[in-house]
Amino acid sequence: MWMTAPLVEVTSVSKTFTRKAAAAGGNTTFKALDNVSFVMTKPERVALIGPSGSGKSTLLRSISGLHTIDKGKGAVSVMGRVVQKNGSLASDVRATRSRMGMIAQQFNLVGRLSLFTNAALGFLGKVSGLRGFLGMWTADEKQAVMRALDHVGVAQFAGQRANTLSGGQQQRGAIARAIVQGAQIVLADEPVASLDPVTARKVMKLLVNLNEADGVGVIVTLHQVDYAKLYCDRILALKEGKVVYDGPASGLDDETLKNIYGAEFEDAFWGEAKA
Ligand SMILES: Nc1ncnc2c1ncn2[C@@H]1O[C@H](COP(=O)(O)OP(=O)(O)OP(=O)(O)O)[C@@H](O)[C@H]1O
Description:
GO cellular component, one term: membrane
Keywords: ATP-binding, Cell membrane, Hydrolase, Membrane, Nucleotide-binding, Translocase, Transport
Distance between the termini: 37 Å
Structural class: alpha/beta
GO molecular function, one term: ATP binding
Pfam family, one: ABC_tran
EC number: 3.6.3.28
Bound molecules: adenosine-5'-triphosphate
């Protein structure tokens, strides 16, 4: 079951939000995802692109079960385990989530804890809560954490409080935590949006390495189409909550991009994403 099931299966997912009106009453509903389907059968690097507000983060959060999708036929499964269906989270969603590494744009790490402890938090799904809470890691666990920090190039900062690290060092720490966790899927929500281009490229390369060397499936939302094309092999484009492109990065031509981004087309490129 674990070996043959798709890594990620999103079937007919819709997500409606209620928008509160400024004045009393008159709330409106808004469909952020509209019948989205998408399957990742083998570990790939999938870039989620699309204009601001097109539903990228909502899709990522629906995959991890942080958003509950609309009732109906919609369903999300990860590695053969149901995350949610018909508007309800599965009762064992925490266990499934422990196989997913999450990387956000900011606030990835617990600021007052050391980088080492933050990376070691990747063990939390596997060790008793109390042992993790008290930081009672075994020698093997400590070694694994240091290996992961070394792998992403931040071992020298292990003892430093996370909130004193640079943005790039924090993102590397989040990747190390996913490695410690043994994540089979990494969901990264705009992981390079607040980084300078040089650091952004390094972080993207670490995600590529995680996929190529460790067979981890990566789904990453990106504002920069250049990065999506350069570092990902598949692109899923959303527009107004609908999938408007799902295919190889090489197949995404300017005409399709103009249709996706409209007036935002020129802004979707940084022009700085070099290998
Ligand atoms: N909790 C919420 N309540 C109400 N509306 C929401 C909520 N979360 C998201 N939305 C709306 O859903 C739409 C999709 O938002 P989402 O954050 O998924 O877009 P995005 O493509 O990730 O955008 P960006 O590129 O700007 O981050 C937006 O119109 C947003 O305002």
